Each structure stands twice: as structure tokens, then as C-alpha cells.
TrEMBL record, chain A:
<dbReference type="InterPro" id="IPR005225">
    <property type="entry name" value="Small_GTP-bd"/>
</dbReference>
<protein>
    <submittedName>
        <fullName>Small GTP-binding protein</fullName>
    </submittedName>
</protein>
<keyword id="KW-0636">Prenylation</keyword>
<keyword id="KW-0342">GTP-binding</keyword>
<dbReference type="Pfam" id="PF00071">
    <property type="entry name" value="Ras"/>
</dbReference>
<dbReference type="InterPro" id="IPR027417">
    <property type="entry name" value="P-loop_NTPase"/>
</dbReference>
<feature type="region of interest" description="Disordered">
    <location>
        <begin position="187"/>
        <end position="216"/>
    </location>
</feature>
<feature type="compositionally biased region" description="Basic and acidic residues">
    <location>
        <begin position="195"/>
        <end position="216"/>
    </location>
</feature>
<dbReference type="GO" id="GO:0003924">
    <property type="term" value="F:GTPase activity"/>
</dbReference>
From TrEMBL, chain B:
<dbReference type="InterPro" id="IPR009976">
    <property type="entry name" value="Sec10-like"/>
</dbReference>
<feature type="domain" description="F-box">
    <location>
        <begin position="37"/>
        <end position="77"/>
    </location>
</feature>
<dbReference type="InterPro" id="IPR048627">
    <property type="entry name" value="Sec10_HB"/>
</dbReference>
<dbReference type="InterPro" id="IPR001810">
    <property type="entry name" value="F-box_dom"/>
</dbReference>
<feature type="compositionally biased region" description="Polar residues">
    <location>
        <begin position="534"/>
        <end position="559"/>
    </location>
</feature>
<dbReference type="GO" id="GO:0006887">
    <property type="term" value="P:exocytosis"/>
</dbReference>
<feature type="region of interest" description="Disordered">
    <location>
        <begin position="529"/>
        <end position="577"/>
    </location>
</feature>
<dbReference type="Pfam" id="PF07393">
    <property type="entry name" value="Sec10_HB"/>
</dbReference>
<dbReference type="Pfam" id="PF12937">
    <property type="entry name" value="F-box-like"/>
</dbReference>
Amino acid sequence: MANDEYDQRHPRDAYAVVLIGDSGVGKSNLLSRFTRNEFNLDSKSTIGVEFATRSIQVDNKTIKAQIWDTAGQERYRAITSAYYRGAVGALLVYDISKHQTFENVTRWLKELRDHADSNIVIMLVGNKSDLRHLRAVPTQDAKEFASENVLSFIETSALDATNVELAFQNILTDIYRIVSSKALDQGESSQNPIGERRTLEISKPADPENKGGKCC
Amino acid sequence: MASGSFKRAPVTGGAAPRHNVLDSLRATQIVGSKPVLPAELIAQILDYLSIPDLLRFARTSRRMCEMVYDDTRWVSRLKAMGLWNDVEARRRAEEVRRRQMEIQKAREPEEEARRLGIVQGQSEAGVLGVGNAQRAGTTLFDAGWEEDRRRQSLEKAKAAQPPLETGFDAMTLSHVAAPNSATPRDPALALKAMMQVRSIRGYARQEYGKVYGAMAPFYFDLARAQSHTDPILFRTYREPEQQASMLASLKVFARSDIAMGWESREEKLESMMGIFENAALREFEQGYGAGDVDGRMRRYAHVLVVLNGGAAAVDAFIQSHALFSESGGLGMLLDCIQSVSPGHGGAGVRLEPAHDYFRRLASSLNEQGAVIDRVFPPSVNVLTPFIERVAEDIISEYITTLFDEAHERSLEAYLKVVPGVFEAAAKFSRSIQPSKASPPDFSNQVAHLVASKAFEQHIDLYLQEELDFFKRASDGEVTAWEKRLDDEQQSTESFLMSNVSRQAAKRDFLTSFRKVVMMPVSVLPTPFAGSAKPASSPNPNLATTSGGEVLSAPSSRPSTPALPERSSSPNPPVSELPTTELAAKAAIMASRLEGIRSLFSIEVALNIIHAAKSSLDRAALFVKFPITQAAGEAREQCEIIFVELLNQLGGRHIRPGFDKAVEHLSHYNPRKLKEHGGNQGQVAPLVTFLELVNVGDLIQQMVDVFYVQEMVAPKLVDRDDFLAAANKEKKRFEQMLDERVAAGLNKGIDVLMEEVEFIAATTQSATDFNPGAAGAVDVKSDAVVDVGPTETATRIVELVSSHTGMLVGSTDKNMLDVFNQEVGLRLFTALCKHLKRQRISVEGAIKLISDTNAYYSYIATLRNKSLTQYFAALRELSQIYLISSKHAKEIATIIADQDRYYGIFRAEEVYEFAERRADWYLVKRDVERAMYGIGCGVM
């Protein structure tokens, strides 16, 4: 693995970002637009999870984003929680032309809060902004919702590439700033975000035990 | 009318005679003996009476009169002379009926008016009365009206002449003037009597009477005459034309003479005519000899034609024609073969002399056609028998000598001469102008004549030779190639076409091939057209040059290597000197495998197809042969040639090649070759085999184009006729090819999968899916950053896709689908097997998922729905490893979820996969407890 050495040298510059949201809101196309600048009109629903990476510049530093594109229809919490595991950022996507997907944002948010790192940076993304004539979710509503839940917010269109770049840029910048400031605060220079995830795992065993208690 | 009364006669036969007999033969009635002969017998007897006797008999009683006058009796006589026209008679009868109907209709309102008693003014009443009178007249005398019309038309026709039977109308039915009059009437009129007979039902007797009146005097006089000077006929008519026409009329008239002694009378007439004919013929010949075309020849030709169709004159004309005595002057017989330059090795044949010959013959025939038009009346077809004679004597002789000579010299020359000359002859028959007397299908007739008289005898031999020639040629081609192949066995060479778009190259190749096939084999260098194209360009040369062009034109076309020229470029991997024994073996193997593409060659196929094409084109000329039987034979022969072509191509060339290739494939061992560093990312023998499939497909398409162009387009074979030998053979050929390809692909898939397994086994490192296992705990998290598929997956996908891609466009879609499906399934199985050998940690799952995603996206490109599902299931499956050990119980639910895996994995299978988790022994208890319940958890 030739890349390992490289990664080892710049361990803190790789961040995992997870794309979540209802099935069919355009997560996969957001990803393909961002990483390959492609758009596929008749894409099938994602099976499981797909990965992609892309490097971007933040504050004159190259950071590598590893993006997990998840299946919106995944039913098993065991699996979805695996998606959130280790993620330092999440793009919570809804479809501006389908109000239901916006309503479900609350549910997704809850899941994030339940399973993901509490420090996770979340961005609310209203996708398909090109479908102006079909808009079902007013920008204002979404903005209000975002500020209520302390999320950043952006409207994008994977089809005409509006704001896609910006959305990823913003969230990665946020993540970078938070992580680096945290690293400074904690003074643990060797610790990296993924390491954090590890700590998280270790710190979480209480959760499954609780659940186990419930199940049995 | 009359016929009606006749029909009634037998019915009332019992009553009527008794009635008559009561009048005249009371005594006999009293005695009680038989009253009278039955009507049938009387009718029979009447047939033998001469006309005068017949009429005399008619006077004996009313019944006899009725019997004699019976229309059928006279109609039959008119029919015997061929003067009665049923259609005309029916038309007239219908006309009469129609008019009666009209009158009936017209009368109805008048009658009604009368019944109503509406009497108009005096004048109107008068009109009415007149109308009635007329009506009565017409109904009664509609036959009389007919007579009027006839008379009017006669008057018009004859202009100055008064009507023949002036006092003859419907009311004087009983007066038959003509038969008894012994004195000949106006002689000019008598000549036309025959022509003026018309067919009116009920008036046959009158019509016959007229003819009889005109003819009988001459006829009986002639029968009595002692010498040819005696008869009044020759005294009455002075002009030979008139005499001839009268004689011809008499001959016709004689046929109605069925009274006693008719044989002798007819005989007499015949002999008179013979004498007359001879005299006329003599005059004609003298005229011919003197070259008096428009004078005596023309006159006596007409006389003879009038007399009896002029057969004698035609015979005389043809017999003594100059063309037959001076045929040598038309062209040097053997120019065709003699003037061949020796450089052509006896194959070249000049057909120009033959064309010249036919051209000259045609022009002289056309001249004769003009003469014939002048001499003979347009009713006689002289040209056709004349040409028949020409074909029989002149052309037949010419071509027989020519063919024999050509056959002696060389077979190839013969094969070219025959169709060439035939084509020339066909042109010749087309170029002959029809004469005025020729039937509408004259040129067909001519062609038929020429073909049957001159060519028929040669056709069988020719077709046989053509087939043999082709057989030998293709056989030689294949054998030579095989021999060359043996010689080349040692040297290796390789031209991979991987970079070339096969489909484009193939389409390119096929278009040029189609062009070549469409190009006519010029058996005939511009015949009759007179353009200055070199006649000596023999078609095989033409064919091969264009074939060569085809092969060299798309330089990208790697196809089968032309063995001798390219042997200087050896395969790079093999060029290294094999050092170890193993390497040496591998090198030999590689060279053998490289040789697959030399197992058959497009060049050979092309050459064979070209040989077939030229043979077929030549033989196909004879399908247009006007004689159906021979044409059928030619067609059959064409089919046989095609079948032979398929046999040579398929049986001798392609099949062994494929068989050998499959054998090589089955010997392939990736491990051995890999060590030597063979082709990266490709299984060499499979590549070569796929190339072979490409070439085979190309040849098949060539055959198909050939079939359409050469067999279907000229209608040699009906595409839908599934019984035709050519169609059957073509099917068999295609089937053979498909079978071979399928067999090879089957082997190929085996080989490919071996290779896949080999790659999987050799390149997949244990840390790929289980980064922690290597002990470098610190590193494991970093591996996650690099999310691409592992090298193993990349290589496998590359390998498989490069091979499946190679087939695109080279086999038909169904075959390709089957192949892809098979490859996909086997790949799936191989991957599952591989997966079960791995140990996968939660972190490694990301790698694994990347791998399965890579496989999936490759499989998705094959567009095979069921296959895609398999890999989708694999993707779902791979997520099991992503679940952290905390969720052990839910793992059980996920394992048991059937829908998740599209029914492809059963729960037990998924369980087996789950066992490959790196932390399996940590979660096993929980999973099993969740799956089988607490009780089972103890196990």
C-alpha cells in the first residue's frame, strides 16, 4: 500500500464525511458531481455504501475528504450506525421538491445525534434547486430549521452543479477548523480525527449494553 | 326459336308423327305396323345426303322439312368449315332477346293506358296504331330486322355490288335458291363468300346456302375434271392469286362435304392444289434465283401463302439461302483461343472474335429479316424457322468446334469460353430485329432456339467441369495453406488487435468485401459495347488484386497474419532467450498459442470465396438459359458450388482450426506462463481464441454477404426455401461455427476463471481486508483513507472486462449474453470462494466494500439484470463486515433477512460469510443466540 506512507505523513488531513438523507434525494449524484464532475439522470438507488475521495484546499492546506455515500433506504441501525462511525462531518440531504424528505430531516438528525460523534459537523443540504417550479420546501423554512438545530445550510443542484463544490468546501473547512482548534485545545498533536472515532468507539460500549438490556 | 322447336321434337315425337301419318299414311296406321323410322335414324341418314338431295327430301313433308332445316345441321357444317362463331351467335341472340324485353316493357304502359280507356285525339290514336303495328312487326320479324341489318352492312361492304341474295328474307324461309343453281355467280363475289358468313342462330342454313352457291360449282367441277387445265376454276380466274385463294376456299369448303364420295372429291382437290403449288413454287424459285425480290418472289410467296400457309415457300427460301453455304466467311473459328498471349499461361481467352462473329451473324440475319419482310406477307413467320436453321447448322457447328478446342487446350480456358460465348450468343439473340410477322415474344423464341440448338449439348459438361474446377481450386488453396502453416510452425509472430476497435475494423473490412463481391466477374470484357477495355484481364487476377486490396487497405486490420511476410516480427516476451527448461516449455507453449490465429486465415477464405464467386457467376449465366430443364440444372449446379464452398470453408478450413484452438486452450496453464511474465492482464490463449472467434465471425459474415449477393439476388436460391440444399448447408455451416465458438468459449471461461483465481490467490494480501492482523495497529486507521479497491480487484476486473469486451461485435448478441452471464456467474462463484478464504475486520470492510463495488460496477456494464443482482447481493453481503461488534445481535437479523440478498444467498450461506469476520469469535455467541435462540446458543 503505497499510499499508507503518504497518509502516515499527513494523518490529520483525511476526513470522513457521510452523506445521509432519504432515498432518492440525490446523494449519489452530489457525490459524483463533487468527485468526478458527473451526473447520471437514471442512477439506481445505492446498495450499501460507496466511497469516494477528493482532495481540496483549505486555508492553504491540502486535506483529503473521504466521502461515504450511503443508501437512504437502509433499515438496519447496526449498519447505519456503522456509516456514522468515524464520520467527522455529515451532509444531511433533502429534496426541495419533496416535502416529505424535509420532514424526515428531523428523524435523520436524531439518528445522527444518537449514533454519531457528538462533535460531528452537520450541514443541511437542500438538493435539486434546479427544480424551482416544483419547490415544496421554502428556503426560509429550511434556513429556520437549520438555525434552530445549529446546522449550516445550503441549497445545491447536482444536475447543474450549483453550490455542490461550495457545500463540500464549506463543511470540510468547518471540520478542519474545529479539528485543528480541538487538537490545539487538547494539545494532542498526534491524535487525528479518525483516532477520535476510535475513542468514540471505546467510549460508547454503554450504549449497546443498554440496548442489549432492552432487547433481552 | 329453331333450336327450341328441335328440342321439342323428340318430346312430341309420339304425337306429331301420328298426326301426320293420320293425314297421309292412314293405311299403315290401320295395319298397325311401325309408322315411320325414328327421328334419330332419319337424321343420321340425312347426314349422308348431298345438298340437293337433302333439299329435295325436305319437300316430302313438313316434318322432314323441319328436320332438314334444323339449324344445328347447318351450324355443324359451318363449324366444319370453321365459319361458325359461337360467341358471335350468342351475342346476336342476346341482342334479340334484349330488344324483345324492351318492347315488352314499352308496351306495358300503353296497354294500361288502353285499359283505362283514355282515348286521345284522332292523331294520337293513329300514332298509337302505327306504334302497335311496328311493335308487332318487330316482335314477329326480329329475325327479319337482323336480315335488314345484314343487308345494309353487306351493301356497305361491297359498295357497288348488289346483295347476293336479294329476295332472301325471313318470310321466304323455304326458298333456298343457291344450292340448285348450277351456273357460277359473279366470280369475284364467290371469292369472298367465305368471308361473309355470319353466325346467326336460326339462319345457319341460309348462310351455308350462300357459301354453297358460291363454291359448289367450282368444287364439283373440279372433282369431275380430268386434267389441270379442265376445271372452270382456272378458266374463271386468271390471276394466280385468285386461283390460289379460290383453291384455299375450296379446301375449306370440302370439309363441309360429308355426302357420299367425299374422299375422292377431296383427293382430287388435293392433287389439283399440289399441281398448282408446284407451279407456283417453281415460279418462286426462279424469282429467287434471279434475285427478283419485289417482283416474282414476292408475288408467288403471297400466292403460296394464300394457298396453304406458304410452308413450301418458306422451306424453299431457307433451303436455298446463301448463308448456309458461305458460313466460313463470318469469322475465323478459333481466333478466340489462338490469339492468346502465352504470358497468361493458357488461362487467358480472348472473346472478341466470338463477339465479332456473332455480331456479323446478327447483322446478316437482320439483313435477311428485311428481305423476308419484303418477300413474305406479314402473316407468315419466316424468320423464326430461318433462325432455327441458323442456330442448328451454323452456330452449333461453330461453338462445338470452339469448345472442343478450348477444352483440349486448358480447362480454365474452356470454363471461360463457354459462358463467354453463351453470353455473346444471348446478346446475339437480343440483337436480332424481329420481322413484321414475328410473334411478340420473338427475342425469347430466338434465345430459346439458339440455346436449345446450339448450347444444350454443352451445358452438362460445362457445369460439371465448373464444379470440379472449383473443387480443385479451393482444395488446392486449403492444402497449400495447411502446408505453409506446417512450415511456419516454428516461427512465432503475434499481432494483437486489442487497441483496434474490432467492430470498426470489421465493418471496414466487410464493406470492402461487399464491394468486391458486388463487382461483376468480367467474363465478358464489354461485349458488343465496343469500349476499349483490355479483354485479357482474367477475372481471377482481378479478384485477387481486389482481395489483396481489401486486406491491405485497413492497415489496422490485424486479422490472420499472412504467414511468410510477417515472420520477422517475433513476439516480445518470447524473444528473450528462454533460460530454464520451464521457460523453454512456456515459450513453446506461447508460440503454439500464438499460432492459434494462424489456424485459419481470412486470406484463404477470401480466395476460396473468390474462386466460388467466379465459378458461380459463370454458371449463373446459364440460369437464364431459356430451356427450363437446363436452367434448372444450372441452378442446381450453382447451389452445389455454394455448398461446396461452405464445405471447404467450414469443414476443411474453419473446423479444424477451431478444434485445434480449443485443444490449445484446454492445455493452458496460467501458473506456468505467469512465472515467465506473460501478457499482463490478458490470458493469451483466450485472447487468441477470441481473435479466432472474430475471424470466424468475419468469415461467416463474408459467407452471408456472398450468399445474399450471389445466391439470393440473382434468384438462384429462395431465401425462404428451407429445403434448398444451399440454405440447409448454410445453416449447417453457421451451426458448426456457433458450436465451435461455444465450445471454445466454454473452455475459455474455464481458463479465464483459472486466471482469476490465480490472481486472487497470488495478489490478495492478508492485510487488505484485515489491516489489524499484520500487527501494525497504528496503521490500520490510515488504511481507511485510501478507499479505492484493492489491486487484486482492479486486476481481476481488468482481466475479465478485457476479455468480455473482446467479444463485443464479434458474435451475435445472444451468444455474447450467454457468455457474459456465464463469465459473471463464474466470477461470482470465484469471488465468493475467495471471500471465504479471507478474514475481514471492521476496518477492512471498507476495502472489501470498495472491491465489491468495483466488481459490481463492472458487471453493471454488461447490462445483464440477473447478473447484476448477484453482485448487488454481494454488495449487501459485504456490509456485514462493516457492522461493529457491538451490534452482534442485529448481525443475526441481517443474516436472516432473505430479501436483502435477493434470494441469492441463503441464511446459512450468509452465516458462513459472517464467520469470516475478524472478530467472529467475539460476536459468535451473540449472533447464534439471536439466530437460534438461547437454547441453541449453548450448542
